[in-house]
């Protein structure tokens, strides 16, 4: 069970890395996540059933997610619709898109090949195929993100999130950066959806409900544990945070709690992680005041 949770944590960390690109770097929440995640799985599973190879099907899922991000980006930057509302509009529309793609609310991969089959010949112990797949994808994604944000374009993207007015004064086209961020972010999120759909063996239109909480939990847990980090270390912290989150969910299940309420437990875990920095700050101030009083 622990190995399975680690594998799941690695796959879900891809979602966290995608959300990080908008939530932390551009400093806005993108609700498209809850639509692009299941969309990636829906397109991927449908493509596999229609004869595409798992790799091509996964890439088609990523492309679908990028298109969703592009629509949100245009609604936000060109339509001047608030980013949260833009994301909600696209998220709602994607529900119908997925039903059109799959022609049903869910679709099974029973007796179909998937990316995990590439590890079949390695004779790995149970659940290690998921770990190897997750680790391989995470390494590639982190390497690409690290390279991207080291470029001049990537630095312009970061500057847009840090201070949009300053970025504009430097000649940076901030709207282009926001659209780019939404496209790339939702592409990575859709990749996570495609991989998890293949690992679970099915796609479902309702799979996106609450996934933004899971992604944010990965980010927040990593930040709470490690504090101030370099950019590369923050990416690694998201992966570690995702694994810890899945292990916490496993612990909750082992303690005998009803799995029907997992989303409630997920929200509680995230709320606690968000409150910890506040408690630390209050404790630090209290300790400081006590020290001053003793003097």
TrEMBL record:
Source organism per UniProt: Tetragenococcus halophilus
Keywords for this protein: Cell membrane, Membrane, Transmembrane, Transmembrane helix
Domain of life: Bacteria
Cellular component annotations (GO), alphabetically ordered: plasma membrane
GO molecular function terms attached to this record: transmembrane transporter activity
InterPro entries linked: ABC_transp_permease
Pfam family, one: BPD_transp_2
Main location: membrane
Membrane topology: Multi-pass membrane protein
Transmembrane segments: 6-23, 58-76, 83-102, 131-149, 179-197, 209-226, 235-255
Subcellular location: Cell membrane
Protein name listed in UniProt: ABC transporter permease
């Amino acid at each position: 069970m622990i190995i399975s949770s680690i594998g799941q944590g690695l796959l879900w960390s891809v979602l966290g890395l995608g959300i990080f690109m908008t939530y932390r770097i551009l400093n806005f929440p993108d609700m498209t996540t809850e639509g692009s995640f299941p969309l990636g799985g829906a397109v991927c599973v449908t493509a596999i059933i229609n004869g595409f190879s798992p790799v091509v099907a996964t890439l088609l899922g990523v492309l679908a997610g990028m298109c969703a991000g592009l629509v949100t980006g245009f609604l936000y930057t060109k339509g001047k619709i608030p980013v949260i509302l833009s994301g909600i509009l696209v998220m709602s529309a994607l529900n119908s898109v997925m039903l059109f793609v799959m022609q049903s609310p869910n679709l099974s991969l029973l007796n179909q090949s998937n990316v995990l089959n590439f590890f079949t010949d390695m004779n790995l112990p149970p659940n290690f195929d998921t770990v190897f797949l997750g680790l391989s994808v995470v390494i590639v994604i982190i390497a690409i993100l690290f390279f991207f944000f080291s470029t001049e374009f990537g630095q312009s993207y970061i500057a847009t999130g840090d201070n949009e007015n300053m970025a504009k004064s430097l000649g940076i086209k901030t709207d282009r950066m926001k659209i780019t961020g939404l496209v790339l972010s939702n592409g990575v999120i859709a990749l996570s959806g495609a991989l998890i759909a293949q690992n679970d063996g099915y796609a479902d239109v309702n799979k996106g409900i609450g996934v933004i909480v899971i992604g944010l939990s990965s980010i927040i847990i990593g930040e709470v544990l490690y504090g101030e980090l370099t950019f590369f270390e923050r990416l690694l912290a998201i992966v570690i945070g995702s694994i810890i989150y899945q292990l916490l969910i496993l612990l909750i299940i082992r303690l005998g709690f009803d799995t029907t309420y997992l989303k409630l437990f997920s929200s509680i875990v995230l709320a606690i992680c968000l409150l910890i920095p506040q408690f630390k700050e209050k404790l630090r101030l209290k300790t400081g005041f006590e020290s001053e009083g003793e003097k």
